[in-house]
Amino acid sequence: MGNYSKKKSVSVALSVVVASSLFVACSKDSTNEQSDTSSAKPTTAPTAQVGKYPLTTQDTLTSWEQIDTNLTSFVPNLADAPFGKQLEKETGVKVKYTHPADGQSKDQFNLLIASNSLPDVIEYNWGGVGGGGGTGYPGGPEKAIADKIILPLNDLINKSAPNLKKLLQQDKELDKMIKTDNGTYYAFPMIRPDNGLVFRGPMIRKDWLDELNLQVPTTIDEWYTVLKAFKEKKGASAPFTAQYSNEMNIQDAFIGAFKTANRFYVDDQGKIKYGPIDPQFKDALSLLRKWYAEGLIDKDFALNTDTKALDNKLMSDSAGATVGLLSGGMGRWMDTGKKKDPKFQLVAAPYPTLNKGERAYIGQRDFKYNPIASKAVTGDSKNAELAVKWLDYAYSEKGSLLFNFGIEGESYTMNNGVPTFTDKIKKNEKYNLQQMVSQYTKPNGPFLGDSRKSFNTYKEQDDAIKIWGETDAAKHVMPLFLTPTADESKELAKYNTAITSYKEEMFVKFVMGKEPIEKFDDYVKRIKEMGIDKVIKIYQDSFDRYNKR
Question: Region (Disordered): which ranges (predicted)?
C-alpha cells in the first residue's frame, strides 16, 4: 500500500507538471548507491545459464517504445516484423510491445508514467539533457529511481547482464557516461560505433559548382560568393535552405565560424556557455541577416517544418545547399536527383570558418552513448531479471548482428567476414534501403552499434564523414547525458522552456529583419532576467561532477 501511495503521489505531481507545461522531454540528487534487490519485485528466473540463449521461460515481457516510422509502412507493431519474430526466436522471450503514436510520444509517456500501471521496460530519454534541459522524467534518473518508477541496475547488470558488464569494464569512458553522479546505472544504452558519431553537415550541389567554375566553399566569404552565384546565375530562389524544427537546423554551421554555438557549449577553458548570448553571436546573426536580406537564405525557412518542404526545394532546383543527414538526406536526395538529372551531385562542404585554413570550432558530433533511445526497467516489473537478460542479448556478438544487420541469409550475408546487406534489401524497386532495413533491424535503441554497418550508397557519403569530422566539436559539444540533481532539474524545467522559446522567436526576427540587430543587447538582458545564469551554473556543476566520476 505504501508503494501504491508513493506512485499515486508521483501521478499527481506529474499531472501538475504536465498541466503547467513545465515538463520537458527529449526533442533531451545525489543519493547513496542503491541495490537492485531493495526495489525489485519478485522475478521469475529463466532456467538457463547467464549469457546463454535462448532462455527457457513461460513469462511474457511488456515494452513501451517508439516504432521506427519506416517500419510502419509494413507492420503496425514491432512483434509482427521479421526483426521482432527473430529476436523472440533467438532470446526465447516473448514480448508484447506498445508504441506511442508518431509525434505523440512525449504526451503518451507522461500519461503512462501517471497511470500506476507500467510495462516491464520503457525506451525513452532516461538520462539525456535535451534541448530544453530535461530528461524524460522530471528530476532525472535519480528521481525516477527514488520514486520507484525505474530500478537501479547495478546488481542486476552485475548478476544477469554479462555482455554489457564486459563492455563497461573494457570502456571506462562509456561506463562513465551511462551512470549517475553517485555511480548508479539506470538504463541499457544505445552505443554508437566510433565511425557513427558524425552524420550531419553542410552539403552543396557540386554539379552547379563545376558549371560555374567554383570550388567547394570552406570560409564564410567563399560561401557568400557561391550562394550569390547560385542566385544570380542558376536562378535559385533559395540558394541555401534548411529544415526548421523549433530552430533553424544548421548544426552551428556559419554560427560556429564566430567561435560560438546556437546552444549550450563548452569553451576552451572547460566552462559551459550559452552561445545565443555571446557577444560574437551578434556577428553571426548579422551575417545571417545580411544573407537573408540579399535572398541567399530561403525566405520561407521557418516554414520548412517537415522533410517534404526541404525535399521540394532541393529537387526543384530552388536550392543548391543545405545542412542535412548523411543517409536520410544526402543519399536520398542523390537517389531522387539522379533520376531527374544524371549530373545531379551533392558533396559535403566543411563546417565553414572565417579565415582560410582554420579548423572549425564546432559542428555536429554526437557521443557513443545516445540517451534518447535507452531502456529502463520499471519498478512495476515482476520480471526484472528476465528483462535484464533479454536486454543484454543486444550486446552479445550474435545479438549485435541481429540488431544491426538482421537475419543472415535474408537481410544480410557474410562477405569475407563482413556482414553485407543483400540485394533484397538494397535493390527493392518500391522501398528504399532504410525502409527495407527497418523490417529486419532496430535502427535506434539499446544495443551495440557495429562499425561495419553503413547505409552509404555513394562515395560522396563516405567522404562526407571525414569532411564533417574535421572540427573541434569533441572539445566543445556539451554532453547530453549530464545528470542534474532532482532540485536542479526542477530549476531547469522552471527556466529553460521559456528561455528556449524566447531565444528562437528572437533568432527568427533578427534573421528576417523584423527586429533590428541593435536590439541584441536588450535581448541578452532579457534572457539574463529569465534566469540563464542559474541554468548555466546548473550545467556547469553537473559537468564538473561528470568529469569527476
Answer: 31-51
